């Protein structure tokens, strides 16, 4: 049974951490194709190193382009790579342009496609991630859904065959990382009670000057209230906020996953437009203030751990200065072991084909 995993962007590397380990434990042969969508060491290498992800078999070196050019170049390179690898199945995690390219290339070559994190919907087609997920789900043969809601959303689009409710692989990654964070680090303890961790990278926020201005104003206000506001910057966001340097906000380089989690786990709150961090905050019991009008992780909102504030300055300040805590039991995304369930299912697929 040979698996090819196609990935290329940060949130996919995080998921690959759990998946590759589970494949190895199940005796499955995996070849990783890295599209090169993310190429800076701080956006790629650091994740391979700390999550102990096997070295990519192929690196396509695509880099940054407009979405159609980026996706198109990936497709062209994947044609050769997938023909050469001749896998039994192509696994694509997440919802990035690399996810879509991997799914489409495999489908056009007649190779079975498995989508990890299938069925999520924000119902906002203006988001590239939403378009990527919908398209990927509609060509996938195995659809690994993280939540009951995702299964229902797939059914509403007529997708019922091949759907498996497996829980969320990011839970496995979180547990693995936490087991390596032995005791509080110096980062954990310094100002932890007043710390607010912020991440901003979605085009919705970075490429709309008015929204970005309102968000930055909120961060400035929170800093002025005496909170320790830490903002690890995505490269794109950095180019958009050149010249903005309020003394009240700690602007730092993008962080590795473990370093980020060590800050988040003892923070007062997180402010983010990332999907993954909304869930990590939920599992860690840290209130999340989400810089979007909708989320695909609706359970985090329903259970009181997440508030959707869009780019409303006052709501961001209110949310982070007086954060609301939600339900004690946080099990919307299933029990740990999702990656092992996926590996087992793939193994069964291999032996039945
Ligand atoms: C991508 C994913 C998004 C995910 C995010 C995590 C898509 C459509 N979006 O968005 O779902 O949450 O990754 O980070 O695939 N850049 C660098 N160095 C890098 C990578 C990017 O400088 O290593 C800069 C480039 O200027 C590039 C910009 O960031 O143009 C955007 O990168 P891109 O990969 O197109 O999308 P992300 O915004 O990172």
Q: How does this model look, in words?
A:
With 353 residues, this protein is of the alpha/beta class. The protein is 46% helix and 15% strand. The protein is built from 16 helices and 13 strands. Strand 9, helix 11 and strand 10 form a beta-alpha-beta unit. It is globular, with a radius of gyration of 20 Å. The protein binds uridine-diphosphate-N-acetylglucosamine. Uridine-diphosphate-N-acetylglucosamine (UD1) binds next to helix 1, helix 5 and helix 11.
Topology, pairings included?
Blueprint: E1 2-7, H1 10-25, E2 29-34, H2 45-50, E3 58-59, H3 67-85, E4 89-93, H4 97-108, E5 113-116, H5 128-139, E6 142-145, H6 148-156, E7 163-165, H7 169-180, H8 186-189, E8 195-199, H9 203-206, H10 209-224, E9 228-232, H11 235-240, E10 249-252, H12 257-264, E11 269-272, H13 275-284, E12 288-290, H14 298-302, E13 306-308, H15 313-321, H16 338-352
Parallel strand pairs: 1-2, 1-4, 2-3, 4-5, 5-6, 6-7, 8-9, 8-11, 9-10, 11-12, 12-13
The chain binds uridine-diphosphate-N-acetylglucosamine (UD1).
Key features of this structure:
353 residues; alpha/beta; 7-stranded parallel beta sheet; 6-stranded parallel beta sheet; 16 helices; 13 strands; 46% helix; globular; binds uridine-diphosphate-N-acetylglucosamine
Bound molecules: uridine-diphosphate-N-acetylglucosamine
Largest sheet: 7 strands, parallel
The helix/strand class is alpha/beta
- Work out the strand percent: 15-25%
Number of helices: 16
Query: What share of the residues lie within helices?
Result: 40-55%
Report the strand count. Answer: 13
Q: What order do the strands of the largest sheet run in, or round the barrel if closed?
A: 3-2-1-4-5-6-7
Secondary-structure element order, N to C: EHEHEHEHEHEHEHHEHHEHEHEHEHEHH
Spatial separation of the terminal alpha carbons: 10 Å
Kindly report the average pLDDT value.
95
Radius of gyration: 20 Å
Low-pLDDT stretches: none
The outline comes out as globular
């Amino acid at each position: 049974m040979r698996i090819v995993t196609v990935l290329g962007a940060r949130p996919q590397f995080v998921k690959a951490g759990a998946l590759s380990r589970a494949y190895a434990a199940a005796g499955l042969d995996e070849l990783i194709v890295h599209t090169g969508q993310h190429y800076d060491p701080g956006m790629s290498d650091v994740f391979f190193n700390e999550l102990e992800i096997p070295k990519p078999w192929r690196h396509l070196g695509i880099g940054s382009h407009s979405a159609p050019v980026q996706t198109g170049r990936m497709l062209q390179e994947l044609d050769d790579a997938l023909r050469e690898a001749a896998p039994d199945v192509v696994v694509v995690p997440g919802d990035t342009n690399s996810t879509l390219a991997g799914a489409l290339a495999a489908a056009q070559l007649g190779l079975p496609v498995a989508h990890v994190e299938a069925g999520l919907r924000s119902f906002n087609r203006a988001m590239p991630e939403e378009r990527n997920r919908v398209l990927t789900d509609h060509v996938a043969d195995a659809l690994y859904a993280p939540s009951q809601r995702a299964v229902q959303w797939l059914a509403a689009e007529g997708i019922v065959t091949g759907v498996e409710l497996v829980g969320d692989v990011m839970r496995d990654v979180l547990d693995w990382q936490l087991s390596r964070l032995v005791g509080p680090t110096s980062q954990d303890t310094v100002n932890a009670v007043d710390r607010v961790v912020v991440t901003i990278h979605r085009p919705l926020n970075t490429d709309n000057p008015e929204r970005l201005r309102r968000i930055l104003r909120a961060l400035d206000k929170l800093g002025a209230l005496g909170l320790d506001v830490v903002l690890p910057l995505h490269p794109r966001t950095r180019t958009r906020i050149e010249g903005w340097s309020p003394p009240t906000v700690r602007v730092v380089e993008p962080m590795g996953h473990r370093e980020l989690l060590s800050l988040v786990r003892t923070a007062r709150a997180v402010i983010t437009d990332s999907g993954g961090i909304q869930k990590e905050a939920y599992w860690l019991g840290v209130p999340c203030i989400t810089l979007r009008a909708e989320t695909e992780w609706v359970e985090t909102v329903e259970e009181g751990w997440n508030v959707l504030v869009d780019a409303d300055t006052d709501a961001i300040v209110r949310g982070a200065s007086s954060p609301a805590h939600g339900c004690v039991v946080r099990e919307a995304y299933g029990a740990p072991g999702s990656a092992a369930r996926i590996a087992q299912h793939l193994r069964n697929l291999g032996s039945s084909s």
